[in-house]
Specification:
Blueprint (H helix, E strand, L loop, with lengths): L8 H4 L10 H5 L6 H13 L1 H9 L10 E6 L2 E6 L2 E2 L1 H10 L7 E6 L5 E5 H17 L8 E4 L5 H12 L3 E3 L6 H11 L3 E5 L1 E4 L2 E4 L1 H8 L7 E5 L13 E3 H6 L10 E2 L3 E5 L11 E4 L4 H4 L9
Parallel strand pairs: 6-7, 6-8, 8-11, 11-12
Antiparallel strand pairs: 1-2, 3-13, 4-5, 9-10, 14-15
Length: 301
Amino acid sequence: MSTTSQPNIDSTLNENRVFECSDEFRSHAHIRSMEQYERLYKEAETDPEKFWGGIASQLHWFKPWDQVLDWNCPWSKWFSGGQINLSYNCLDRHVASHRRNKAAIIWEGEPGEVVTLTYQQLLIEVCKFANVLKSLGIQKGDRIAIYMGMSPALPIAMLACARIGAPHTVIFGGFSANALVDRITDSQASLVITQDGSYRRGAEVKLKPAVDEAVLSCPSVKNVVVYQRTGTPQTMFGGRDHWWHELMATASDECPAEPLDAEHPLYLYIPPAPPASQKESCTPRAATRWALTSPPNGSST
């Protein structure tokens, strides 16, 4: 029998190493030193409402908030009365600046293809797909399930949902049809966005067939939008299934971002757990500057 001692959970969480970065890298960061981090931490700890109000003020708001935090234990509301849109903060405000022609997405697919989208180009694609969703009857508050592989179409779909106020849930593009049923049912999604397939370790992962099987048990789903990635022939069901590229071909590239309440749900997170124990988490729109922008000099975060 082995007598080697096994580390417990607490000991594996002890990490004392420090990884120093170069001065050049540090000069482009939002937080450039441990001292600055500790100072920010102390400010947040001492007066969280003042701290998060300051962070939020660096975002674009269609309507300023009346109160940073409305706390009625155990319930809380952040930035009550304020109106914001994450898609606008991710795209429009950068397009109106020197970042307009800066690369927002640089993507290389497994087969080797490369796609680069500037903020301007990404905004156009997002607006067009937002109008696609509207053409299929999606309105503010309607829920959408996204079951895709890693491609630029995925963030385009997510930002389009955010633009019109349709909460989305992203489902891992390797889950089975049964797992899809659970998550689509829990979110009560009326539309599913998927692909014909994706690539993983040299093999094609067939996504559309899994959706076809799942939606048979999901009466809430009225439409399925299919992004063509692999080119594998698919069975398209009339009245329900729509090719992404066909809808995008006639969609307008003008779609103003919807002003939304700060507590309006952005997305639904359904953790990978047995159906009986799944909990749905709604993430509100108010988010920090560090998640949504680049440093002033234009370097990527």
